[in-house]
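A favour, since you know our structure tokens better than I do. What I am after is a single protein written out in full by you. Could you add the entry underneath, on a fresh line?


***
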Amino acid sequence: MTSDMRPLEYTPLVKGDIRLLYPATSDSGPEWALKSAKLMRGQDEPPLEFDALSYPWGDLDQTFPLMINGQRLEVHHNLNQLLPYIMPRLEGRPIWIDAICINQLDDNDKAQQLAVMAHIYRRAQTVWAWLGVHDDAAHRLLHKITEVAKVVRGHDDKFRGLLDLLRREGEPASQFSLPSISDPA
């Protein structure tokens, strides 16, 4: 992908539609297709099947070109790291990613899509949470999240141990693994 590729042109959405990113491959490697889809469906219509992504945007100053519909869209570092990892795991399902599926240069598009964001996450078959490529801090965070979930699930006398748990540092997280960006599908 080169900088001489045409920038991605977004097609305006009809009210109630969203854009979804579809994984695809070609002779030149992984590619993506951005297509609109009807989010709100009638009782006679099959539900829209898609995943959604929740992630920190990260450094917005560093961008990388991404090929979508044969055009170029600049994405930030965290998304650039995620896309090669998630593409094979989607198994052909489309995914909703705010930085891509919302035209970030169009205030009207942003307002319309932000208004339905809660519906998007509720209707997604899977909501992927991406914290980035793993490091020791990510392992510790994942361990803490798991421990907090156990405490909350057991109600532990109205969360008695929750603050103590959150204050502990440096516990091993060896039973958990976060994916490495080089982790094959």
